[in-house]
Design brief:
By secondary structure, the protein is of the alpha+beta class. The protein is built from 3 helices and 4 strands, in the order βαββαβα.
């Protein structure tokens, strides 16, 4: 399953916070959870794309970052799969 997470920093990012988040991303990769992060300009500070086997794993993944960021999450359905639902 695919998830799009809109992210806002709880406080201005500092090197220690970025280092902590980077370590968490590395741990997730070792667990087979694919996560791509793009910093953005505008209402949100970043957009994250997560590929996880189910909602529970995605939720657990997102909760690991709750001390650092506020999030808004959406489930993403690939276009081809969505068309089959019509």
């Amino acid at each position: 399953m695919f998830f799009i997470v809109l992210v806002k920093w709880k406080q201005a990012p500092k090197k220690e916070i970025i280092d902590k988040a980077t370590k968490m991303l590395e741990e997730l990769a070792k667990q087979g959870i694919k996560m791509r992060v793009y910093w953005t300009m505008g209402r949100y500070d970043a957009v994250t794309f997560i590929e996880a086997p189910n909602e529970k794993v995605a939720t657990k993944t997102i909760l690991r970052f709750q001390g650092i960021v506020d999030t808004e999450t959406m489930v993403a359905i690939p276009r081809e799969e969505a068309i089959k639902l019509l």
